[in-house]
Amino acid sequence: MNIIWTRAIVSLALLAALCAAIGAFAGVRVALAFAVLMLVVQGFFVTYHMQRLWRLLEAPVYGEVPSALGIWGEIYYRLHKLAKRWHAQVRQVEQQHARFIQAIQASPNGVAMLDDHDQIEWCNDIAEKHFGLDAKRDLRQHITHLVRNPDFVRYLNAHHYEEMLVMRGMGVHRKYTVSVQVFPYGENRKLVLTQDITELERTDSMRRDFVANVSHELKTPLTVLSGFLETMRELPLDEIDRMRYLDMMEQQASRMQNIVRDLLVLANLEGDMRPPGDELLDMRAVMRHLEDDANSLSSGRHRISFHSDDALTVAGAETEVMSALGNLVTNAVRYTPDGGAIEVSWQRMKDRAVFTVRDSGLGIPAEHIPRLTERFYRVDRSRSRDTGGTGLGLAIVKHVLQRHSAELDVKSEVGRGSTFIVRFPASRTALRKSLAA
After folding, report:
1. Do 287 and 263 share a structural domain?
2. Tens of pLDDT along 374-409?
């Protein structure tokens, strides 16, 4: 027997005992009148609290506990406990839902949920960017009314979602290449997942270009070598022609060796994730070495000048820095016509070490400058091969400078020459005290 029945029986027993006592002293009629009066009062009391309970159930207010005597106080208390427990469960579900939404928002992939009519129920920020949507404005809109890409419309309507769809030129403020895949779930609902593969496609394109360029760069000297070998084997040659052919073959073999050497240097730079050391370089020796190489390569065909702050140095890997700076100086000599001027400087600007190579060569068109550090990228392929370059020098420069947290700035004007500026960070710039004194 629960507490409600217990309290009801006790109340009736007390009322009966009270009526019996009144009947014994005042008579049966008085007892009956008292009993009727108490039942009427009890009826009004129950009706009042029933109406109160009805209003509370129609418009519940969490935290409000009506006070009442007797069994109604117990009912209100139990109802409050039930509402409190439900409220806690709802809060828990809401918190889980909020964490779930936060997790999807943090995902690098786009997520859009469609109902059974392909209308947008919800999408995260990434999906908004990929599809050019507005989650609030476009809620309950048919997705194909907003994403009008014909391939996407066909893909969504075909209901064959085993393969991904690649869409190019997506987005509004920035253009994306996006992979899209649909996953059906629930009652004819769909989950649309998108992934930004712009960088992946760019990398894959660079890889294909790189393989094609390597094949092309190695194919040319191999073809020349094969032709000369065939000529020397099948034709009688005098000593002069034989030596000339051997010299040409040696040049082509040397060119292939240079390409392979630079490829190995690039592979080592990309594969070594460790930062370069903090050992201070002997920049006086580096600058002398660069000057000797420039004069040797020029053979007096250019006016070359070097200006160096002997006290200024940087921390890093000497072989890497010498390779990067040497490539810039070598390129200036190779691409400057005879009689041109080349000026190289090593100086401190504010708190940074700056290496500058300025030439009076042909200059570089502005549209080519952003791509100069790509592997095998050439402004003029025929002229680049004539100078003996491998097309990898500036790619090596870029990776070396990245490892040393340095920056490369290129300024050029067609017909007036080019300036390559390397700025080392203040954290790697130092002054040798003994020299500075």
Report:
1. no
2. 877 777 655 544 555 567 888 889 989 998 999 999
* CB-count exposure of residue 302 (10 Å: 0-12, 13-18, 19+): buried
Q: Which pLDDT value is given to residue 436?
A: 41
End-to-end C-alpha distance for the chain, whole angstroms: 102
Q: Which domain holds residue 260?
A: 203-271
Are 263 and 361 in the same domain? no
Strand 110-114 relative to strand 189-196, pairing: antiparallel
Number of domains in the chain: 4
Q: Could you tell me which residue, 41 or 435, shows the higher pLDDT?
A: 41
pLDDT in tens, 267-305: 777 766 677 778 899 999 999 999 999 999 899 999 999
In this predicted model, what pLDDT tens digit does every residue of 163-204 receive, in sequence order? Answer: 899 988 887 777 888 999 999 998 889 999 999 998 888 878
- Which amino acid, 207? R
Average of per-residue pLDDT across 40-45: 80
Q: Assign residue 247 the CATH number of its domain.
A: 1.10.287.130
Listed residue (51, 195, 46) closest to 126, CA to CA: 195
Kindly state whether residue 278 falls inside one of the protein's structural domains. no
Q: Hey, how many other C-beta atoms are within 10 angstroms of the C-beta on 2?
A: 6
Is pLDDT of 237 > 90? no
pLDDT of 2: 63
| Cα 385 to Cα 368: distance, rounded to the nearest angstrom | 17
**In this predicted model, which residue has the larger pLDDT, 415 or 262?**
415
